[in-house]
Every structure is written in C-alpha cells, then in structure tokens.
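Chapter review: from sequence to fold.
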Amino acid sequence: MTIHTKALSALAALALTVPAAAMAQEPIALRFSDSTTADAPRSVALTDIFAERLGDDFEFQPYFSSTLVPQGSEIVAIQRGNLEMSLLPPSDFAKQVPAFDILGAAYVIRDPEHLQAVFESDIGDEFRQMARDEMGLEILGIAYYGARHVNLRGDREVMTPQDLNGVRLRMPGGESWQFLGSAIGANPTPMDYAEVYTGLQTGAIDGQDNPLPNNQLMKFHEVTDQIILTGHNMGFGMLIINADLFASLTAEQQQTMRDAASEAFAWSDQQYIDQEAELVSFFEQEGLKVYEPDLEAFKTYAQEQYLASPLSDAWPEGMLERINAL
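The token string follows.
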C-alpha cells in the first residue's frame, strides 16, 4: 500500500468516527414547562441564570404559559419521558404522594427564610427522597414566589380568624384550596381567576386571596378597600428533573445543575421579597388600608382545623411539630 493510499484510508476511517464523536458531544436537551409567564422573576432566573450556569453540556429549552404541556400534566409528562423539567407547587406532588400536602397547608411554611430552613434540614432530605423513590423525580431547588394575603371589600377590621366569619372569600377550586379558606375562618367560594375582578366589583364575593404582585397585576385594588397581611400560605415551587436522567449525569454535572438552581432562585427570591415590600406602599398610596392581624391567632386556629380534618391523615407522623420547631 502506497503512502498516498494509506493516507486516504486513514482519512476515511477518521470520517467514519466523526459523526459518533460529534453525537457524543451533543448537549443534553432539557425541555422545561411552566404555567407562569416568561417575564415572571422565577422564569427570568431560569432563562438568564440557570441556563447560562449549566454550560455547554446542556441545552435548556423553556416553554412558559403551558405552551408545551397542559398545566397539571407536567409530572406525568416527566415520568413518561415527554418532558425533562418543571417547576411545580406542593399540591401537584400531593396528587401522587399525599404527604407533600402538608407543605401547602396554612401557616406550615411561615416565610421565605423558614422555607429555606425546611429544605436545608433533614426534613427537606426526606421530601427529596420521597420524590425520588415514589415519583421518579429529583428536586433540584426551591423557588419562593410570594405570600398569599386576604384582600377585602368594605371596612370590616380583621384581626383574628373569627373576624372572617361569613366572609365570602374567593379561593381556587379543589378540596385543598377550599379548605385553606375555611382554615383561616372565611367562607370559601370557588370562582375562576378571570372572574374575580367582576365578582369583587359586583359584590358576588367579599374578597380574594393572592400574593401582592397578583393583586396589582389583576388590578384587584381598584375594587377592594383593604389588604390584611395574613401571609397564610407561602407560594413556592420545586424545580424537578427526571430522576433517571439526573442519575445518568456525572457527579460534576449534577453539582453544576444544583448550584445553577441555587444561584438562580437566590436572585428570584429576592426579587419577589423586594417587590412585596414595595407593593405595600403602592397599595397604601392607592387608598387601601394595609395592616397585619394577630398572626399567632391565625396560625393556631388554622393548624387546629387541619389536625381535626382528614386532610392531615396523610401527613407524616410528627412532621408538623418538626417543621414548627425550625
């Protein structure tokens, strides 16, 4: 064989190996779905910080406003391999593992700092293990996105749960959400989110509960008179990925992913906290009365309601006391 022929053979062999090598270096596609909008702080954190920190090993493909899969079907889509990632509240996890329901009960998670403390403790480890073993999901990080407060028509002063007796408070549909309304003393009334403004305007309902940014976005302050800073529910989501996919990554890739989530949500958490503080002044300037009730009275009443209800049957034994102790 001549030198020229050998060279051609070597080049041909190299050409055959290039496609395989190129394929091996292809970034791992991470299809992500969320029901919120692309401009929400937690969404911006994922696209601008999380995706960038992942590096060249991954290609983060975000789909917001439920444009890829319908809201409520994300977990099943991940389990079936039709989706890799999502950011979901405890109520979605509770559909498959009811123990998660405790994390969305009134006054269990007290504030953003308490939320972090819970998930940095052995309690957080236990919930991560449950998600891994029973759902095939890996929890990568926790994103806070606002405390829910009571927003009412009229001048009724609310300091204790008893002061909400008879108040028709719009709450999202579903047993857990409706019970949340009664657990703070109100008469929960299901109503579609898009109808709440008109419901308040016409008096069909006396009030609604939402994080302050939602109140501003939906202009509920135009048809209400006061905001009671009950903080009865801390809105947060858990960033998840298919557990088998995560297990297939190198230890370095896994740590990179966790660190990226931590950095992204540290930024977005602060955006929500700052926004909430600024909105108190905004609503006061708009003429609303904004004040804090007796939070201990609300917490005591709410936890008594849950413990007397079948909804707490699935809570892990002793978990409420352990969370309260943090």
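Two observations follow directly from the output. The first helix runs from residue 3 to 24. Strands lie at 28-33, 58-63, 85-88, 137-152, 168-171, 187-190, 207-211, 226-242, 289-291.
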